[in-house]
Amino acid sequence: MTAPWIIVVLLLLATLLCLIPPLLRRAPAAQPASEANVRAFYLAQREQLRRDMDNGSLTAAAGMRAEEELQRDLLQDLDLRRNRGAPWAGQRAGITAACLLTVLIPVAAVLLYGQLGNPRAAASASAGQPAEPHAADAGNDMTLAINALAQRLRTAPDDADGWYMLARSYETLGRYTDAVAAYQQVLRLVPGQPAVLADLADALLSANQGNPDDASIAAVAQALAAQPDQPKALALAGMMALRRGDAAEALAHWERLQAQLPPDSEAARQIQSNIAQARAMAGAPASATATASAPGSAPVSASAPAAGAATTPAVTAARISGRASIADALRGRVQPSDTVFILARPEEGSRMPLAILRMQVSDLPRDFVLDDSSAMSPDATLSRASKVRVEIRVSKSGTAAARAGDLGGALSGVGVHAEGLTLVADTVVP
To answer: Alpha carbon of 247 to those of 237, 243, 255: distances in Å?
Structure first.
């Protein structure tokens, strides 16, 4: 038994030792002085009876009967004086209370600790781990809550709010395929909602490692047709256009989005960075005319500069390249079908990946390239960073979040134009 549990048991025993003994004590007997008085009275009666027999006032037979009656009266008076029934009843009540407290105090302590304490602390201590809650515990609790919500929706499938909450929760866990299915359930119940269509497109892109497919393109188009200024749909439409090499259309979507954002907001600064990237890719100066039509939107134009006006220098797009592999000593711990993630995170601040690739163990070793086209969101790209941490993760669960038993490896302090990196999965996630 470990030290925390020994302390708990000793405290319970100390509490019981303070409460139980007084309940088990016998009730005080009748006062000795009262019994002595009764006995003295009957002895005096007996002496008088014997004197009467000696002087001939009573026959021997009558004297014997009188003495027997006197003895019975003495015993009855003594029983009445001692009042034995009440002390025994009190003692039985004490024993009953002692038994109940012996059971109820430990049970109440356990129940109260379960409600107000940290039930995992003792288990962590018995395993030699710190008693503070771990991130893994929070993740497990979240997974249990999400599974409970999914189970409830199986019995109540017409709860649109519940499906939407489930979809967002799946995205938090990196379960993008499940999120897509949940968003589709929302659209089944409330068709044509622009915000939900944009969320569906985002989940489809994440499930497909950022590569637009027919379903995600259609979802963005439907969202913009219903609401031309839908922010997430405009951001995704610009990203899709940039990935297929149409910088002008990307500019049209992102400039339309920029007009909706507060000028000093972080979102506005991020979209301005995307616009600068699109202009650099288009080979145009910062104020050159760019005209394109987003689905359901009007062309957007900017005025050309006057002759001889200075232009903004072109921005060099970020690009990180290298070769990824698994350490030979750990090859036996993975299967060919296990998922491999290669990603870049900011060296400081947010832990959100700026670029991510997905493949399988059977693909390794393999050359890789991370750039703005592999960004999960147009609002967070490699071009916005100066130094990043490049990671490789081999996941049995298929999610990018680290789990015990996964393999991993990382390179820190990598510049956004680094080349020839050697990225090796050489550690096991504890």
So the answer is: 11, 9, 12
Residue position matching structure tokens 């979240």: 142
Taking all residues of the chain, what is their mean pLDDT, rounded to a whole number? 74
Q: Looking at residues 407-422, what average pLDDT do you find?
A: 92
If you count DSSP H runs as helices and E runs as strands, how many of each does the chain have, helices first? 13, 8
Most confidently modeled range among 168-177, 204-213, 325-334: 325-334
At residue 329, the pLDDT reads: 93
Count how many residues are written for the chain.
430
Which pair of structure tokens corresponds to residue 161?
């709010």
Residue 4's pLDDT is 62
How far, in Å, CA of 185 to CA of 198, rounded? 14
**Six token digits for residue 285:** 């100066």
Whether 292 shows a pLDDT value over 50: the answer reads no
In DSSP terms, 392 is beta-bridged to 342, 409
Yes or no: say if 297 and 228 are a contact pair by the CB < 8 Å rule.
yes
Q: Residue 364 and residue 7: Cα distance in Å, rounded?
A: 53
Q: Is residue 389 helix, strand or coil?
A: strand
Find the DSSP H helices in 117-159: 119-126, 135-155
pLDDT for the residue numbered 430 = 82
Contact 428, 329 (CB under 8 A): no
What are the residues whose beta carbons fall under 8 Å from the beta carbon of 30, sequence distance 6 or more? 81, 82, 83
Q: Which residue has the higher pLDDT, 26 or 193?
A: 193
Identity (one letter) of the amino acid at 371? Answer: D
The DSSP element (H or E) to which 130 belongs, if any, is: none
Packed helices 3-24 and 119-126: angle between N→C axes, nearest 10 degrees: 120
Give the H/E segment covering residue 412: strand 407-415
Give the neighbor-by-neighbor strand order of the sheet with 421-425: 366-371, 319-326, 421-425
What was the pLDDT predicted at 299?
34
